[in-house]
Every structure is written in structure tokens, then in C-alpha cells.
Amino acid sequence: MAVKGLGELDQELDGSKVRVGIVHARWNKVIIDNLVQGAKKRLLELNVKEDNIIIESVPGSYELPLASAAMFEKHDVDVVIPIGCLIKGSTMHFEYICDSVTNALMDLQFKIYKPVIFGVLTCLTEEQAEARAGLIPGKMHNHGEDWGAAAVEMVTKYSPHLTKISGNK
Amino acid sequence: MAVKGLGELDQELDGSKVRVGIVHARWNKVIIDNLVQGAKKRLLELNVKEDNIIIESVPGSYELPLASAAMFEKHDVDVVIPIGCLIKGSTMHFEYICDSVTNALMDLQFKIYKPVIFGVLTCLTEEQAEARAGLIPGKMHNHGEDWGAAAVEMVTKYSPHLTKISGNK
Amino acid sequence: MAVKGLGELDQELDGSKVRVGIVHARWNKVIIDNLVQGAKKRLLELNVKEDNIIIESVPGSYELPLASAAMFEKHDVDVVIPIGCLIKGSTMHFEYICDSVTNALMDLQFKIYKPVIFGVLTCLTEEQAEARAGLIPGKMHNHGEDWGAAAVEMVTKYSPHLTKISGNK
Amino acid sequence: MAVKGLGELDQELDGSKVRVGIVHARWNKVIIDNLVQGAKKRLLELNVKEDNIIIESVPGSYELPLASAAMFEKHDVDVVIPIGCLIKGSTMHFEYICDSVTNALMDLQFKIYKPVIFGVLTCLTEEQAEARAGLIPGKMHNHGEDWGAAAVEMVTKYSPHLTKISGNK
Amino acid sequence: MAVKGLGELDQELDGSKVRVGIVHARWNKVIIDNLVQGAKKRLLELNVKEDNIIIESVPGSYELPLASAAMFEKHDVDVVIPIGCLIKGSTMHFEYICDSVTNALMDLQFKIYKPVIFGVLTCLTEEQAEARAGLIPGKMHNHGEDWGAAAVEMVTKYSPHLTKISGNK
User: Which end of chain C is more exposed for a tag (fewer CB within 10 A), N or C?
Assistant: First the structure.
């Protein structure tokens, strides 16, 4: 999607009290590692304490939704950033996994009423994934940074206001 | 979709008691800003008080559904207009985000039994988005206006009649 | 879909005690009006009383599912026929709206355990929609008639047998 | 899908105590009739008593999911075989109905925790449907037979073990 | 999807106390048998006891989700590996079954809060399926092995931490 003029944030973000879980798939290691580092770097810049960033892995992207659900209880985090990198292959595996993972991560938010950031690349080529992981100099920034920023923003703005709807007071 | 003869409204609309939340993504700022202004303009025309229009932002369209859910509690609004502008890029990100966001916004209505207006453009080119934001003179009207009108209409006609099904009396 | 031999109904239908809500979108007025009239005509032929047919409108097809849910409570109807006419345009709006509306109408039946008829045309051209509204002489019949008949049939055959699953006795 | 070596059943099936509901759409009558007869024939071969096979119809495939749900209560059956025949036409009706019906039938199983067999043909041509209904000699077997066998197998193997998850003990 | 550098596991896996259900479809027997054996081999390597691996079959992939749900209660397993092999045919059956099965398996995890591994091949040709079953020497490894490893990993890492969200303590 085009990035023609990203609007400015309407609020200062301070992550000093935010606990973040990152759970990443292990396929396409170089790309994943860079995305995870990008997310972590941005979280630290927003004052998230290193101790409050918990990183775990799962085999592939299909495992991300259930693992994300468990991360909230396992590590008492406020938000989870599931990170995966799906690249189109010759079968239809890509299409069905992308679809079910995207929808399951979205829906998970409405089961736990806590934010789950969408850190999954759905690329047609490896080059597209490398670019979005900030691995091709001069092309694109590391998208993990956006996900780190989104995590702190969503917790700050909306987590305190999801109690009534969730039934947890 | 073709606009061959838009049927007339079957009821007068008065928004003087309606509280509206607008939550918009920040990508594609110029387009988004115009859509938000279009929605606000129409709301004011329908007698919604300026104080009863609360506007917030999230990073991208994926964040709209959870933020929309939270807006109801955070600002005690009757309806939310989530506004985003997705434009097809080279990966499959557009397809999976459009699909999950559209379905999550639709489904959210059946979790809270309050209207959520669909203010997300799903365009193949930037020009298509500009036209729908009313930015290309002589082409199309600002679609934000439709969303503002739909918000007042849905609250007026249906919000009082969604209590039994929701279990909130 | 081909209509090669429509099987005969296995039961007489009598709509004299059935209350029907019709909620229609207002885009593509001529087509919509004819579909609504077709549905109403067939309902009357099946002995539904004119007073028991309640007709309302919403702006577009996206609004149909929530409005359909509300119609049950607002007018104490036994079945709702949501009527819309979506025609493919240049963006991807058609695809995402068709998908989310179809699924939401289907799913609504399992939230309220009452029938919701699928009265939404999903056409690639205006001519296809006109034909299905019975507006092109000698081509197709008005599909609204089918929806009216389906409404009475579903209520007659199944509404009394959806109490246990719904938890309403 | 290719049928290269269908593995053998790992258990004897005895349908003598199984009650089966068949609910079929009425479009494409010849095809539907053959599919229903194929299912019934196989059920009888597996010792299902003729009195324990209840057959009803609905207008089209969209009506199958709600009718299937009602069949369980209306006729106290252990399993439902919804049978429909969708054939691609010129609009997008086929795609949206196929998608929503398939997903609704699948999901219904997790609302009632009883098996619902997938007896819906989703064909691009009438000839494909005829072949799958066993109407083209020497081509394919009547798929209704598979559905009848699947119904007895699923009840036998799994119905007694879906009580805890359903909350019905 | 490309397998460029699979990241290392971040934890030792010991399956000696894990009970695993494998439920497989019977279409495409040779491929399925190899996938099942691959999963079993890997489970044994990870110290899962042979007695703790329960294998059953269903007719086709559509039956996998409900059978997977039942396997948890029928055999008191910690995780289920549903194994199926879908290959594109001439109708649209492949597309609708792949979609509904993938989503139903994903969603099942959030009904029972136990892991369900995605062991379904969604291939365009038989050769693609044979390769992924390890049947074409020198091409690909048997994907069943990955599924066995994922089963033990998900139980070990996340099953103890899905109690609160599931309401089962």
C-alpha cells in the first residue's frame, strides 16, 4: 500500500508500564530475526523496559494465533505482536494459511479484548519480504518498527476501555 | 457500484441527541482527512452537536475494529464510523487486511448490538481513493458524507430495537 | 445458476399467520423497488396479510444485517427478507461487501434462530440485475417472488423447531 | 479431487440405530433426486431403517444450514445430510452462496456437536453435476452414496464423544 | 513457501507425557499413509510413547474438524494432528473444502483451547502432494514430520497456559 503522507500521532506514547509479548514463526529466519529486532528497537525507544519484552517462537505462522492467546496468560503481557513471514509457493498453502491466520489474529482480539498486532508478511516473493524487513538498503523501512509502535499505542489508547465489553471489570 | 437512482429516505433524521465516534487510520493522510471532514460535515448538517463528535486515530486499518469496540466504552458513543483507506500494493497485504477488517467491523455490530458504519475504502489505485474522498473535482462526492448520514440513520431507526437480542435491557 | 427443473414443493404453504419484515437498501432504486414489489406480491398470494408485511429501508447493503436483526424486535416479525443490489464497480468494494453481507446474513440466522432470506443480488453488470428484477421482458422472472415464497416456507417448516437450539422455550 | 486409492474403513459400520435427516434444495431436480436416492440406498445398505430416514426439501442451497439445524429438533435425528447442487452462472451468486453455505454447514456442527455431512455440489457446469450424481454412465459414481456412508460413520465413531465439549451430558 | 533458513528451536522438547491423536482422511491413501507415518516417526523420536499415539480415520477432509474435536474427549489426548490431502479437481469443491476446513481447524483451537496442528495438504497437482509426503526422492522431506514436532512443541509451550482463557481450571 502506498505511504503517501502518514498522519501524525494524536497523542504522546509512553511504554514504560507496558508489557509486550513477541511470538514469531521460525521459517525464513533472516527476515524474521530482523522484523523481531525492528519491533524490539521501537519498543525500547518508546520506553518499554527490556524485561517487559518477552520473545518466544513457534514453528510456523499457523501456530501464531493459539500461541498469541497463550502468551497473555503465560507472561501476563498487555499486547502480543505475532510475527511471521509467509511467501507464496507452488501449492495453495500460502492462500489458506494467510487467510486463516489473519482472521484468527483479528478475532483473537475479540475473545480476550486485548490488542494483537498484525506482524505477518504475506508476500509473493522473497524480495518483497526482505524489503519489508529492512534488508534491502534504500528501499523500505523495517516493518517491525511499525508493529512495535502500534503495540504501545493500542495499549495506551484502548486497553483501559475494553473492560465492559469483555465482562472483566 | 453504479448509483442509478438512490431511493429517498423514508424518515426524517435528527442527530441532535446522537453521539458519534470517528476512528481513522493514519495512512494516506490527505484522503483520510477529507473523508473525516466529509463525515463530520454531514453529521453537523443532521444536527449532531460538535461536542458529540469524538475523533481519534489508529496507525492502520487493521487496528480499526478493536479501536471501534473500545470507542463505545471510552466515549459512550451510539455509533462508530471507522475510516480507513486501503490501496492495493505489490504483496497480498491488501487482500488479507481488507477481508479481515471488513468482516471484523461487520461482526463487531453483533457483539455490541450497536451500529458500526463501513468507512473503509478498498481501492486498486490512489486515484480511485482520491475520487471517493471528493478530491477530484467533478468526479465523485466525498463518501465520508454518506457515512455520516448512515450513522445517524442507523442509530435513529435501529439502536432502540437491539436490546432484546443483545441481552442489555 | 441453471434452473433445470425446479422440484415441486412438498407441502402446502399458508402465510395467513406469518409476519414478514422487508428491509431494503436504497442504491439502484428501480431494481430494488421491483424486487420489493415482487416479494410483496408473492407474500400476498400466499395469504400473508398486507398489515403483516413491514417494509423499511437502509442506505446500502452493508447495513442490511444489523437492520435485519433489529427488524425482528422492532416489528415482531417471524422472518426478514433483506433486499439489496450490489453491482461490481472499479474498486474492490463490491467483493468485500458481498462477502461480509452474505456471511453476516447467514450467521444472523444462528444468532436469533429465525429465518433470514438471502435477497441480495451480486451482479457484474446492471443488465444482470435488471433481468433478475424482472425488468427485461422475456428474460427472467422477478427474483423477489422467490424470496417471498422462501420466507413463508421457512417459517412454516422450521421456525417451530428452532426453540431448543436457541435456548428460548 | 483425485481418487487414487481410497483407504479402507477401519471399523465395521452398523446403522440400525441411526436416525438420519436428509434436507435437499429443489433446484436442478434430476440431479438432486439422484443424489438423494444415492444417499438413501447407501444408508439402507448400512442397515439404517427406512423409517429412520426423514427427507424434506427447501427452496435453494442457501436455506440448507438453518433447515439442517431445525431437522435435528424436528425429527430427532443423529445426523443431517444437506444436499444441494450449485452451478456457476453469470453473476457472482454462485461464489457467495457456495462460500457461505459451506462455512455455515461446517460451523453448524460446532453449535450442535452433531455431524452435518457436506452434500453440496459446487460445479462449474451442469455436466460436472450430472457426473457426480451418477447420471453419466461409466463416468463417476453417485456421490450421494459417499454421503450416506459418511453419515453412519461419523455418528458411530464420534457422536458419543461430543458430549463434554457441547455441555450436554 | 521457501524454507530459507529455519530458525532453531528455543527449547528442548520432551514428549514422554504427551498424548497425541492423529485423525486422517482416507482419500489419496498412499500419500496419507506416508504423512501419518512421518508424523508418528517424529513423535516417537521426541519420546512420545507408542501407546500415547492414537490413530483413526474419517472419509474425507471435510470430516476432520468435527472428528478432531471428538478425539480430545474420545481418547483424552493433548493435541490432535488432522491429516488430509486435498488436490484440485475440475469443480470448485477443492476451494470451498480447503477454505472451510482450514478455518474450522484453526477455530477449533479457540473452542477447546488445545492445539490442533494443520496437517492438510492443499495441492494443485498430485505430484505436489507426493513431494510433500516425502514420496519423491531428493525433492522434499515428509511434512508429517513437521506436524509431529509441532504437536509436541505446542503442548509443551502453551497448553498449560490456556486455562484462564478457556474457563477450565
Answer: C
What is residue C148's predicted lDDT score, i.e. its pLDDT? 98
CA-based radius of gyration for chain B: 16
Q: What is residue C138's three-state secondary structure?
A: coil
Residue A49: give the domain boundaries.
Answer: 20-153
Residue of D nearest to C8 (CA): D26
d(CA E7, CA A58): 10
Give the one of A8, A150, A161 whose C-beta lies nearest to B73's C-beta. A161
Instruction: Give per-residue pLDDT as tens, B33-48.
Output: 999 999 999 999 999 9
Residue D169 has pLDDT above 60, yes or no: no
Residue E62 lies in a domain: yes
Contact D27 C158 (CB under 8 A): no
What lies within 8 Å, CB to CB, of D160 at 6+ separation is none
Strand partners, E81: E22
Chain C residue whose CA is closest to D24: C7
What was the pLDDT predicted at E5?
Answer: 63
Strand ranges in chain D using DSSP code E only, listed in sequence order: 20-25, 53-58, 79-87, 119-123
**Per the domain annotation, does C126 fall within a domain?**
yes
pLDDT of the residue at A2: 41
Looking at chain B from residue 125 to 164, which residues have their Cβ under 8 Å from any Cβ of chain C? 128, 132, 146, 149-150, 153-154, 157-158, 161-164
Is E80 contained in some domain? yes
Helix/strand/coil percent split, chain E, to 5: 50, 15, 35
**What integer pLDDT is reported at residue E6 of this predicted model?**
67
Q: Residue E102 belongs to a domain with what CATH number?
A: 3.40.50.960
Q: How many domains does chain D have?
A: 1
Contact check, Cβ <8 Å, B158/C74: yes
Q: How far is E44 from chain D (nearest CA, A)?
A: 23
Backbone angles phi, psi at A57, to 5 degrees: -130, 160
**What does pLDDT average to over chain A?**
94
- Tell whether A6 is covered by a domain: no
